[in-house]
Design brief:
Layout: H1 2-89, H2 93-119, H3 126-145, H4 173-219, H5 223-300, H6 305-329, H7 334-350, H8 352-367, E1 375-380, E2 383-392, E3 396-401, H9 405-411, E4 417-421, E5 429-432, E6 440-449, H10 455-484, E7 498-504, E8 507-517, H11 521-538
Antiparallel strand pairs: 1-2, 1-5, 2-3, 3-4, 6-8, 7-8
Length: about 575
């Protein structure tokens, strides 16, 4: 029993020891595992810290890169902006003038230094003194060339155009000059406004460029940027000063121009009102004159006195119109005598022919001696021209030559256009074939018969033929002459055909005269001449004479005549 107990105890103890050892091993293994887990966590933590550090480094590097890129982009953007501003300022006339202003300051400083150096003669040689003097003279000449930029960054543009003093408008012609003057003032105002606008634009661009360089310098501080900033700052201050001056001057200048324009327009309004008043007075004169003429025409109709009365009324009207115009625009009437004296002398000497032509035109128009459409004859230096009046201008009469007796007997050509100066009416002969509605002229046909012909029968035959062909023209002429008595003093004149007989060396001349159309005299002449010739040749006791010699052989000899055969009809 005891042995069993011992064995049991031993087994129990061994079991317990084994169990304890096993438990210890398990604990040891757990401890080892626990240590390994801690190590792994530490490693993980280290890895995480390294990764975090790496990520932070990369983030920092990325941020730095972004900052660098942003800086470069900003620099490029600012440079691009500066380039754009420079492109706008390229070839700007105000900046060109500003460069001349800077040149003036620079040359002035150099000249001052040279003058100071010239005062310190010291041990200088004559050659050095001469060289220095030449330099001073050259600098003074340079300053004189750009003297307008003394104290003005833009030169003379800082001053507005001068406003010329305009004289009072005293006549209608002054209105045209006044309108031109107003236009000139408005252009001057626009010109100075454009200067002010240009200065303002340049100032704004310089200010933008200055701010751009300041940002560029803050972004990328460089010495060259600082120098540009200093120059731009001075340029901005100068142009700001110019802008203030120009703006103030522009306001005053604009008000002054507006005042002058208003005063000028007021004078124009006065002159226009004066013109309308004068025109109204002249229209009243014309209406009164027309009424007087209409009233007098009832009493002087078909009477020669109406012509002279009409002339007197027209002259009186012109006289009063001239008086109204002269007293309206001439304050001192004595000036008229002086002006007319000098004008007359100048015209008489320099423009004699023109003046006489104008005066001749006035005479033609007022007298009514020649009208467009009249047939006239002009004689000049032996040249004779007959034609119809095409036009009467201020200096000449234009006529077209027609086929007439003159062209048949004298010129042997026709159809030409002649220009007759109006002053010829004072020195040359001008005949009007159709004056005052008279459209007929006397034309004559001369036929010579022998001394032994029956001239009385010839006269009768010729007269009958004339009456037959010219009857219509005779009646027309009678009526026309009756109308002309209202304008001219005409005695009773016959209009019937006339036949005259003259004894000439080679026979008896039967001169037959008749009235014919002024425009076609040759037509009737060429019609009647064969008729008269044929009628004479039919008579045995009428013989046509021509240069011949008669030889009487013996007593009882007869002068035989054989009539020519009849010509075939055309």
């Amino acid at each position: 029993m005891k042995n069993i107990l011992k064995v049991f105890l031993i087994v129990s103890i061994i079991s317990i020891n084994l169990f304890a050892a096993q438990e210890k091993q398990i604990v040891d293994e757990k401890h080892i595992v626990s240590n390994n887990l801690n190590d792994i966590e530490k490693i993980e933590e280290l890895k995480q810290e390294e990764e975090k550090a790496r990520l932070e480094a990369e983030e920092k590097q990325r941020i730095e890169e972004e900052k660098r890129l942003a800086k470069e982009n900003k620099i490029n953007e600012l440079k691009s902006k500066i380039d754009t501003i420079d492109e706008k300022l390229k070839d700007n006339i105000l900046l060109k003038r500003y460069s001349n202003y800077n040149a003036y300051i620079k040359i002035s400083d150099e000249l001052a230094d040279l003058k100071k150096s010239a005062k310190k003669i010291g041990n200088k040689t004559e050659e050095q003194i001469h060289h220095l003097t030449n330099k001073i003279r050259i600098k003074e000449n340079e300053l004189e060339l750009i003297s307008e930029y003394k104290g003005s960054p833009i030169g003379s543009l800082i001053n507005p155009p001068e406003i010329d003093n305009y004289e009072q408008i005293s006549n209608p012609f002054g209105i045209i000059n006044a309108l031109s003057y107003i236009k000139k003032l408005e252009n001057n105002k626009k010109e100075f406004l454009s200067v002010e606008k240009g200065v303002r634009e340049v100032t704004n661009l310089i200010e933008e460029k200055l701010y751009a360089y300041l940002e560029l310098y803050n972004t990328d501080p460089k010495t060259e940027y600082k120098e540009v900033i200093n120059f731009l700052d001075k340029e901005k201050r100068d142009f700001t000063m110019v802008l203030e001056i120009v703006s103030t001057t522009e306001e005053v200048y604009t008000r002054k121009i507006e005042q002058v324009i208003l005063e000028t327009k007021s004078q124009i309004s006065v002159q226009i009102e004066k013109i309308f008043n004068i025109a109204f007075i002249i229209v009243v004169f014309f209406v009164v004159t027309l009424l007087i003429k209409m009233a007098l025409k009832k009493y002087y109709s078909q009477n020669e006195n109406f012509y002279m009365t009409n002339k007197v009324i027209n002259f009186t009207l012109v006289f009063f119109v001239l008086i109204v115009v002269l007293f309206s625009y001439i304050d001192n009437v004595s000036y008229i005598v002086t002006i007319l004296g000098f004008a007359s002398a100048g015209i008489a000497i320099a423009l004699k022919d023109w003046f006489m032509s104008i005066f001749g035109w006035l005479v033609i128009v007022t007298s009514g001696s020649i009208h467009v459409g009249d047939r006239i004859k002009v004689t000049r230096d032996g040249q004779q021209v007959v034609g119809d009046v095409l036009d009467i201008s201020l200096f000449k009469i234009t006529i077209r030559e027609d086929i007439t007796l003159t062209s048949y007997t004298v010129n042997r050509r026709t159809g030409r256009i002649f220009f007759i100066p109006n002053n010829y009416i004072f020195s040359e002969m001008i005949a009007n074939y159709t004056h005052s509605g008279l459209r007929t002229v006397w034309d004559g046909i001369d036929i010579t018969i022998t001394f032994d012909s029956n001239y009385k029968k010839a006269q009768h035959i010729a007269k009958e033929i004339l009456k037959h062909y010219s009857k219509g023209y005779t009646d027309i002429t009678r009526k026309q002459l009756s109308k002309m008595r209202s304008k001219y003093q005409l005695r009773a004149t016959g209009v019937e055909p006339r036949v005259y007989t003259f004894v000439e060396p080679y026979g008896i001349v039967i001169s037959a005269w008749y009235l014919t159309n002024s425009y076609s005299a040759l037509v009737l002449r060429s019609t009647m001449s064969p008729e008269i010739l044929e009628a004479f040749m039919k008579e045995d006791d009428i013989t046509i004479a021509y240069p011949t010699q008669t030889v009487n052989v013996g007593k009882g000899s007869e002068n035989l005549r054989t009539p020519p055969p009849d010509l075939p009809e055309v």
